[in-house]
Amino acid sequence: MTIAKYALCAAVALMSVVSSASAHRLDDYLQATTIDLARNRIALTLRLTPGVAVTEAVLRQMDRDGDGVLSPEEKHAYAERIAEDLSFSLNGKSVSLEPGTVVFPSVAAMRAGTGTMTIRFDASGELAAGDYQVAYRNRGSGAGTVYLVNCLVPRTASIHVTNQKRSPDQSFYALDFSVDGKKG
Prior knowledge:
GO terms for molecular function: calcium ion binding. The protein is of the alpha+beta class and about 180 residues long.
């Protein structure tokens, strides 16, 4: 085998190690939000992934009795706490977010930096034909929080995303969309 082939094999091996090593979050708390528009509701799904360096602090916020196990009540209370850090408005009017599904990974997965909590909130109500603007703010969990936010492609042809704006850190998001008169 030539030196060039050895170098290529070494580079491929190094890239695979680097790639697998970067799969675990380290020192930040990723809060990724997707917004799903439908005629009868707007759903926000948050995927929260604490990095290994911040997991213990996040677990202390959740595990109120300190037993190392997250009870359904503790998970629900944490979802409510997350909701308190969110603001959501439609055409300038504050809209309450109703709690939906809450899915938590194992504590071990969170400690490994691979556990993602999924919390869904719904803003229910029929969207009539017209133009709309959503304003969403995530005040998050303090220093070390990294935000991502995006709108999913609407599943119905009657909803059209017309503009998206984000703050540089993506803790604020403005979404313009329109709904036409067709129901499909």
